[in-house]
User: Fold Molybdate transport system ATP-binding protein from Rhodovulum marinum.
Amino acid sequence: MLQVTLRHAFPGFALDVRFEAPPGVTVLFGRSGSGKTTIVNAVAGLLRPDEGRIAAGDWILLDTARGRRLPTHRRRLGYIFQEGRLFPHLTVRQNLLFGRWFAPKDAPREDMGHVVDLLGIGHLLDRRPGALSGGEKQRVAIGRALLSAPRLILADEPLAALDEDRKAEILPYFERLRDEVSVPILYVSHSAYEVARLATTVVALKDGRVLRQGPAAQVLGDPSVTPAGAREAGAVIAARVVAHHADGLTELSAGGVPLFLPRTDLAPGSPVRVRIAAHDVLLARTRPEGLSALNILPGTVHEVRSRGGPGAMVALDTPAGRVLSRITRRSAQALGLEPGVAVHAVVKSVSVAPQDVGGPG
Assistant:
């Protein structure tokens, strides 16, 4: 369990955070300027904070109260940047071995063959970076970080420089990294769907402070946690694949309620997490009939939150978990929505994009 406490003042901005990063992927989530990269730089030793302590048990990276600061080169961190930053004159194999060269002799090491298989880069080993796509470069960069035998991996918005197709290519590899590798990951993102897909734990940041931390379903289902833009808001529900149908839809069971999505590649019986965007959820006081939408989740209003504009965010408790709906304040008033009111959430099957469906984590 990595424990992080940091205080640092910049002109016009003050960072004051305290959080814990358990095993798995801990995502630092928030808008630009919320302090995400500043935290990662402090963990990496690239920033000397005014005050702070960063430690996991007896592994102490920083303790300003005791005058302790482990130099960056001794922190045993793997760093994945927005771009691969591979050595252009070396082959993929040589780039991977370069990471291994930095591994301490007595440190537990990842097997290179396992890493290559995990990332699907066996066919790339003899190529140079100039012949790789952006997604392939990032997979090699991940492998190089793993082979350095790190105690912690830092990933600073590693998908930000990729287009949507390359992001969709890389996300499953980060899921495998989360599920199959024991090294904890501190991951920076302002993308709600990346958080929904990858996070074991979410640390939501706002203006240099921790707004909330906890499992992805809890944090993203909190209407007070607002990503960069209302259209990014959405909650995460847990489900299980039931069957694939001939008409191109996959049927899930979400808390015992059937949920139909565009076909996925996951086998029947597989657990999944699904992000449902708040702007794609309609609400009705009674169960609607005669609609084209296939997904209707019964629920109870947990909270209605408005920030003064025309919109309102409604948090619902359903059998599948917390769901958010973004509607107008006028609609919320017309429906008489308040905590405890029974409603039905309506979700179009085609509104759930492929990148919003992933493994359970």
The mean pLDDT is 90. The longest strand covers residues 234-244. The chain has two domains: 2-226, 234-358. The helical segments are 36-44, 92-101, 112-119, 134-147, 164-180, 192-198, 216-220, 329-334.
